[in-house]
Write a structure and sequence with these properties.
By secondary structure, the protein is of the alpha/beta class. The chain is built from 13 helices and 19 strands. The mean pLDDT is 96. Bound molecules: zinc ion (2 copies).
């Protein structure tokens, strides 16, 4: 599909571009961004909207293969495009885990068949996610994996982590670490602090994350490999990243929208949609993470989209599985809570959700430069709406249901094709090209 998007404000952090402009898409790639482009193609009048490079989620649990009652590649990618994502990186903790070529190939084939956006598989670090022996990284890489992670589980064995970094370093792909010391977590279900004491619930101390961050920074330094740390949530963790950077260690990190927006105080409601790992931290930690996002310490915002079936979450807090969905609300939460509250500006938010993720995992996209894939999100920053319990995801385990947020994804284009239109009943105003006069 060829398409000319006119009258939009175009924000592209990859080129430091923020101005009113037209965007011409030809054959699935960006042909041109500029003023008053003329082309005999369908025209989308995007007056009042913002055009940005499509979001890229570094951390999505698609649950397929093996747990299709929670989510599938089809439903998870529909949720992705509804959230402005044009690509998601699929975590390896499926059943069976993505620890061998056949699983990677199955994910890629299913995404090509039934996916609404691009899917980049992440391979397992260890066979069976058991943390004992390394998976065959070269094979996984050749099959299409863009990173390696046992996410959901930490890698307790430091020697295995060292070997993983060395091996991944040779292949020039990152190891993504879920930083947690399970001995310190000790069966905890929420952040260890005032509220875990008040509620009499098992606490997960900040140190559970911070000790592992410290270890892995040392191992990244030693191996000179690229360590990417998933969902950081504590002040000590972001401090460690800051000083690692200063020392020239190749570390990158992500945070989730929920750790930026919510705190452990909310767990008093006992809603199991407030149970995730790492847990919601105290206001002190949240503030430190906000500071780290403003000063550039944090590289990316990733959702850790973790769908669970309603019945699985509809149990006592202690018994509920960890995790919440996030793809469909990420942009709105971050715009409402970060941009509107002037923690960061829109350009920085788009960088965190698109340009930086592309760079971190070395993926196409994250840019509107000519020749880039035509992966685009259209945003309305003025629209206020209430999050309801109807999602494109199969799951609805979101703590943001009922919240009113400002800023919304209205359309998503992947490879030049419109994959999501918020108002299908009243579609975006696309007009046909005028016939040329002879
Ligand atoms: Zn994790
Ligand atoms: Zn995860």
């Amino acid at each position: 599909m060829n398409l000319l998007i006119t009258n939009a404000r175009v924000v592209d952090p990859s080129q430091d571009f923020d101005a009113k402009a037209d965007v011409l898409i030809e054959n699935g790639v960006i042909a041109e961004v500029g003023k008053k482009i003329r082309a005999a193609v369908d025209t989308l009048d995007a007056a009042g909207l913002i055009v940005v490079p499509g979001f890229i989620d570094l951390h999505t649990h698609l649950r397929e293969p093996g747990q299709e009652h929670k989510e599938t590649i089809a439903s998870g990618t529909r949720a992705a495009v509804a959230g402005g994502y044009t690509a998601v990186c699929a975590m390896a903790n499926t059943i069976p885990p993505n620890d061998e070529r056949a699983v990677t190939e199955m994910i890629i084939a299913e995404a090509a068949r039934n996916g609404s956006c691009r899917v980049y598989p992440i391979g397992a670090v260890s066979r069976g996610l058991k943390g004992e022996e390394l998976a065959e990284f070269a094979d996984l890489r050749a099959a299409g994996c863009v990173a390696l992670s046992d996410d959901g589980k930490p890698i307790a064995n430091a020697q295995l982590m060292r070997r993983a970094l060395e091996y991944a370093g040779m292949l020039q792909i990152p190891v993504v670490a879920h930083e947690e010391d399970l001995n310190l977590t000790d069966g905890g279900v929420m952040h260890e602090g005032l509220y875990s004491t008040l509620l009499g619930m098992g606490g997960i101390p900040a140190a559970s994350e911070e000790t592992m961050v410290a270890r892995d920074v040392i191992l990244a330094h030693m191996t000179r490999a690229h360590l990417h740390m998933a969902h950081l949530s504590t002040s000590g963790a972001v401090d460690a990243v800051r000083s690692a950077r200063r020392a020239g260690v190749h570390v990158t990190c992500e945070v989730t929208p929920h750790h930026l927006a919510l705190t452990d105080e909310m767990v008093q409601s006992f809603s199991t949609n407030l149970k995730m790992n790492p847990p919601l931290r105290s206001e002190e930690h949240r503030k430190a993470v906000l500071e780290a996002i403003a000063d550039g310490t944090i590289d990316a915002i990733a959702t850790d989209h973790a769908p669970h079936h309603f019945d699985e979450k509809n149990v006592e807090f202690d018994l509920a599985p960890f995790g919440i969905i996030g793809l469909e609300t990420a942009f709105s939460i971050c715009h409402d809570r970060l941009v509107r509250k002037r923690v960061i500006d829109l350009r920085r938010l788009i960088e965190l959700m698109s340009t930086a993720p592309a760079r971190i995992f070395n993926l196409p996209g994250g840019s509107l430069r000519a020749g880039s894939p035509a992966d685009i999100a259209l945003l309305n920053l003025d629209e206020r709406f209430q999050v309801t319990n109807t999602f494109q995801s199969k799951a609805s385990n979101s703590p943001f249901i009922g919240e009113t947020l400002q800023g919304r994804v209205v359309a998503t284009i992947v490879g030049g094709a419109l994959q999501y239109d918020l108002r299908e009943q009243a579609p975006l105003p696309v007009s046909k090209p005028r016939k040329k006069k002879r």
